[in-house]
Amino acid sequence: MSARDEILARIRSALEGAEPAPEVSRDYARTVAGDVVRLAAERIADYRATVTLTTATALPNAIAARLVANGVRRLAVPADLPSSWVSDFDGELVQDNGLSNAELDGCDGVLTASALAIAETGTIVLDAGPGQGRRALTLIPDYHLCVVAADRIVGTVPEAAELLDPKRPLTWISGPSATSDIELNRVEGVHGPRTLDVLIVE
């Protein structure tokens, strides 16, 4: 008998006569009451991200203002980002048409859209859809300015899961990249942007 067969035999023996696993209840809350846009803004800000509410008309100016405030002069953008979004930005635009990691690292920041946001958890989800680019684009530059449409904010994770395609490359963002793995000291910018800026377009 091989070691594998022996282990499986022991597992089968241990499970003989065991009661079946209880059915897991799925009647948990699937929505949240109240203003999900305001809740999302509060929860995203709890993660040390900057959140600004704006309108579609004021979006180009809001984008330019946040980029100036964060010293961004060389900005990476997805190739399909709406050009109107950066019409007020007077720095250098670098379209991602296959930029190398070194070229992305040489940019001051990145601007993207998003798939949706989850109010209860303050999480933003990217799925490489329109205006979002590939995953590396939002993980290498040290600053990420993300635009979230208010009508794409849902209350809970179950609501989000129903809208997202699990076959797409999903990136779930809850604040700037951070870890406390090293002696429980919080270090930001290890696995992604050190600074997250969010514009919610109402």
From TrEMBL:
Gene3D superfamilies: NagB/RpiA/CoA transferase-like. Residues 103-201 form the LUD domain. Pfam families: LUD_dom (PF02589). It comes from the Bacteria. This is L-lactate dehydrogenase complex protein LldG.
